[in-house]
Design brief:
About 35% of the residues lie in helices and about 20% in strands. By secondary structure, the protein is of the alpha+beta class.
């Protein structure tokens, strides 16, 4: 990703018409500093995407690509533009949302960055519908990704985005929303010296037991019941290139159906026998009580760090942050209670 922006910016330095107006042209070193560690920087990225959103919405169920112009606002006086393509993605959200998550395809953008040799598109998560409450849902889902970043290096990095749409299908109507971009799968794998496994025929028996247990408890904490190793449903699978944990490494993603996000459209599988995604239901493998206690202690060691992450997140309203922390705390209090393992884990484990 870093190479993408570095090489792009270097090319544009030679071609001044693609830049905004500025007093002093940025140096190559300036651009290096701007784009260094793209997914490690907490400051939001500012992007404008200009395309026919009206037509995009008409064809969202078909996953049709649409031409678009993407502008990265490096500063008030310096912008970088690219011709890209966008298309809708996701299962439920592609049907439900007025503006579903989408792919930004950079394959035809003239980018020849080594880091992107196997990456042609990036995921963007954005506000699902027009009501302002959906901005909060985007920010809450972003925080779930950040929480799992704390818990595991085998996780998708994300970057918060101040996203400005220009709808050419509605006389260049402008809308500004929150969104975030997700680290491409192959980049995440390479960062962990691993390769992504594409098979949908895996099972719980084939993945690393320790990491699967950790993910199961994490998912229980955040109220995630919409995942499966088989079919790689909301789980990506890695295999390490060198010595490391035995078995495949699962990596969770797509957290809009968690109780912690509490999206208006999220409903649990009717087979679980619960009424709301806010109720927790354990879907992990059955382990010994000793193993369960070890995993509980592991997650407990991150309690304060998780709370601090949420409470310090300035872009979400304070009431939302407090409510998220209360939900996290309800897990920790439950996990400390007598009989928790037998009552909440052993009763539904597989």
């Amino acid at each position: 990703m870093r190479s993408f922006f570095i090489l792009t910016t270097l090319a544009l330095i030679i071609s001044t018409p693609l830049f905004g107006q500025y007093d002093d042209p940025p140096s190559f070193q300036d651009t290096l500093e701007v784009y260094q560690d793209l997914f490690e920087i907490e400051e939001p990225l500012t992007l404008t995407i200009k395309f026919d959103i009206k037509e995009f919405q008409k064809t969202k169920r078909h996953g049709k690509y649409h031409p678009a112009e993407m502008t990265c606002h490096v500063s008030d006086s310096f912008t970088v533009k690219h011709d890209v393509r966008v298309k809708s993605r996701g299962e439920f959200r592609r049907d439900w949302c007025i503006m579903p998550p989408f792919w930004v395809n950079i394959r035809l953008a003239g980018i020849e960055a080594e880091d992107l040799a196997e990456v042609t598109k990036m995921k963007v998560v954005t506000r699902c519908k027009s009501a302002s409450i959906y901005d909060n849902l985007v920010l809450r889902e972003y925080l779930v990704y950040r929480i799992f970043n704390i818990l595991s290096p085998y996780s998708f990095n994300t970057r918060l985005v101040k996203l400005r749409y220009i709808d050419t299908g509605r006389k260049d109507k402008v809308k500004e929303v929150w969104g975030f971009i997700i680290e491409p799968e192959d980049m995440m794998a390479e960062r962990n010296n691993a390769m992504a496994i594409k098979s949908d025929r895996l099972s719980l028996a084939t993945v690393n037991k320790e990491w699967m247990d950790k993910i199961a408890y994490f998912n229980y904490m955040v109220g995630m019941m919409d995942y499966s190793v088989t079919g790689r449903h909301n789980l990506k699978i890695l295999t390490l290139k060198e010595y490391g944990p035995t078995g495949f490494i699962p990596v969770p993603y797509d957290f809009d159906y968690t109780g912690l996000v509490d999206a208006t459209y999220a409903v649990p599988d009717e087979n679980l026998g619960i009424a709301s995604v806010r109720e927790r239901y354990y879907l992990g493998a059955c382990r010994s009580e000793e193993v369960d206690k070890k995993t509980i202690q592991w997650l407990a060691s991150y309690r304060e760090e998780i709370k601090d992450l949420i409470l310090s997140f300035e872009y979400l309203e304070e009431s939302e942050r407090v409510e998220m922390v209360d939900y996290i705390e309800s897990y920790y209090q439950e996990a400390e209670s007598k009989g928790f393992i037998n009552r909440s884990i052993k009763s539904t484990c597989r």
